[in-house]
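Data availability (excerpt). The following record was deposited with the supplementary files.
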Amino acid sequence: MKAIWNNTVIAESDNTVVIERNHYFPHESIKKEYFKPSETHTVCPWKGTASYYTISIDGKENTDAAWYYPEVSELAKGIKNKVAFWKGVEIVD
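Predicted structure:
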């Protein structure tokens, strides 16, 4: 699977986990040069507290377009520290 934004592959892995129709990529599969930590956090009742990244490529930013759960509930242990995308990030096979 590949995550693409602004015509650039920002993550690639054969080992994604699908939860609620979102592909969660292993943290080591993201191209870290495109990701900036965000101060945003949200809480999911069954997964835990999510942290976000802003994606930055060629002077364009996609604020909080990637998220991950540094700590998860027992129910969501399969996505701990895996990264998912939204806000126009395309996921392709």
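Summary of structural features: The chain has one domain: 2-92.
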